[in-house]
Amino acid sequence: MISRLLSADTYPHIATPNLENVRILVVGDVMLDRYWFGDVSRISPEAPVPIVRIEKREERLGGAANVARNAAALGAYAGLLGVVGADEAGTQVETLLRDSQIHSFLQRDDAISTIIKLRVIGRQQQLLRIDFEEAPTDTVLRDKLTQFNALLPDYNVVILSDYNKGSLVNVAQMVAAARAAGKIVMVDPKGEDFTPYAGASVLTPNKSELKRVVGSWSSEEQLTTKAQALREELRLDALLLTRSEEGMSLYTADEVLHVHADAREVYDVSGAGDTVIATMAAMLGAGMTMSDAIMTANRAGGIVVGKLGTATVTRAELFGN
């Protein structure tokens, strides 16, 4: 089996792809990311914790919605299928989707609240994160699967963004339906069992996610053996392992491709995986080769970790036009 190390020197000229005709349907756990920024100047007399005087608030799309936001920022046609609550936060998600030119197919569930991740930031450092989350009801999830099957003909790439919050209990049926329809299926997995994702085009676990499924490894050769065995067992076209400061490794039937991390300065890694999977999906949808797509996704990940919070990368940042 061929093993290659890719770098900007070996792939210096990746042509700008035509993304206008790429249609990406993102399905998964939709969240609202809230940021409270403030000044920290003293410690509370009630407990040994900093007092943050809030000066600014921001709201951004999170989870699967951030994946769709990244796809739209690159110029692809992005649709989002997910579940939010029938509440103020769900309405805010809808507003942010319109602002980002993402086509919303959200279901509103009266029985739950929208998933919210609230981050408190003082002096450019995250001090606290508070999560509000509830799993969607069975009725809404059945409706979601029906809607997924109806939407499939309109898209050529499907991204299943699993944050283990309950929106993708029907993921096995979704993968099977999308592959039977000839779609590229990208999956960002969670949990200790990846068998529901069997048959996908590309699976994109990080190191900790892969270790929970295949166990630890003590060498690059052992990692390759375990990754390739999992890829074959799940009948994947490729397995993309994101390795933080070590870059990425792509395992296919023909070769193993390693790419060094492209981060200039790491400021915030939250949402970087969303950027990577959205970028690779968009590039594959535009007809790019696997090697060029992973190089481009690696570059996008290096750019986004230099930004605060869940952020996006534009086509101009990636290709300079």
UniProtKB/TrEMBL annotation:
Coiled-coil regions listed: none
Key word Kinase present: yes
Domain called Carbohydrate kinase PfkB: residue spans: 24-312
UniProt keyword annotation of Transferase present: yes
GO CC annotation, single: cytosol
Molecular functions per Gene Ontology: heptose 7-phosphate kinase activity; heptose-1-phosphate adenylyltransferase activity; phosphotransferase activity, alcohol group as acceptor
Keywords: Kinase, Transferase
UniProt-recorded name of the protein: D-glycero-beta-D-manno-heptose-7-phosphate kinase
Lineage: Bacteria, Pseudomonadati, Pseudomonadota, Betaproteobacteria, Burkholderiales
Gene of this entry: rfaE1
